[in-house]
Here is the input.
Amino acid sequence: MNLTDLTLAEAAEGITNGRFSALELTEATLARIEEINPQLNAYIHVESEIARTEAAEIDANRSKGEILGSLSGVPLAHKDMYYRKGSLATCGSKIRSDFRPTITATVLSRLGDADAIYIGGLNMAEFAFGPTGHNEHYGACRNPWDTSRITGGSSSGSGSAVGGRLCFGALGSDTGGSVRLPAGFCGLVGLKPTQTRVSRYGVMGLSFSLDNVGPLTRTVLDNAIMLSAIAGFDPEDPTSSQFPVDDYAAAARNPKAKNVKIGIARGYFEDDADEAALVARDTALAALISAGAKLVEVDVGDLDRINALAGAVMAPEAATLHAHWLLERREDFGAQMRARCEGGFRISGVDYLSAQQLRPKIVADFVERVFSACDVLVAPTFNIETPTILETDIGASQGFEAAISRISKCTRPFNYLTLPCLALPTPETVVGMPGSIQLIGPPFSEASLYRVGGAYEAETNFPRKIPKI
Here is the structure.
């Protein structure tokens, strides 16, 4: 048995039932990292001794008869922007290349409380501002399905590491699609939860109105287990919601799509799309029908406008966050990160405040229009063939904003709309690479997305496909 091919749920169950130890699983993961990471460049740093110490402690607790948590001894790694007291957190940047925070992110504490093992910090776009996986400081992250192609970003290492079996799950962040894109390009399940569902305390920010913490995993159940561990109100983050937390793992274990009305979003998502991506989407629609869902056409309104409003919020908030470094350490930014941040200074305060003022009404109108017609909306996660690293290595050259926008076109509107989105692999590949759809629901409907996603997954069996690196 190759331990690193197990799902997160299978690995946790194996440790709980004593089929193998947490230390054995950790050693297998570390060996896999040593063998494969040079090809993928998924990790910025590996914390092998921390992982071994935590694994030995979990094994000792189990031998004493203690009940282990839901992530009992499973090695996880996270985008290198989650603060862990005393540990490196580079944020994918030169500026923070030796930064060691004095606090620990609430989500890391909660994963630790569930007995997860921390095994390292994963590569990412610089300061989480890029959808491809390029990084001028730490090198491009590579896709385990084809190392010449992008992983998607900005949670590039999270997609590459989980897809390449270099850890069992990972946290990313999603401001315009940065969990869903790498999940999609790397053949994984990725969740952008409802805005405010998960605490952001101790997490590097990019755009405080749009940032979300979310997990990338190989299966729907794995994803639900991770969300169950981290969701809920946190007094350290007053923006986190006190809305009740559902039993997401139970929802995933009880999949149901029969008679669920699935709305098909067309128009915006089909404009300028690559045909192969739409063919892959159609195989996903067929799988939903096979699972018992009913498909209906839905009018999603003017998403071009919503996409533009998302940009009017994200750019100035990112510029505000990095303004002092842009003045004091401008040359320490990569060219694209610097150009995108400085672009935020060109958006007027009137435009920014208008985008924020309009947001509650636009969200309410969208939820009413769409979810009065369907239970769950389905759209592509991306509508293009997976680009190569070389053809997207354009830095801040002319046209880079248009190229970036095309990659994140299908994901970014839903950050402005605050809605939960679950990215899932399509049954068929897109020219040999994973395709992806996203299920979108009304606020705080993550449990419903997991139920439908689990039923869909049972029809596709994609999680058992392993990339040959």
Summary: The two ends are 19 Å apart (CA to CA).
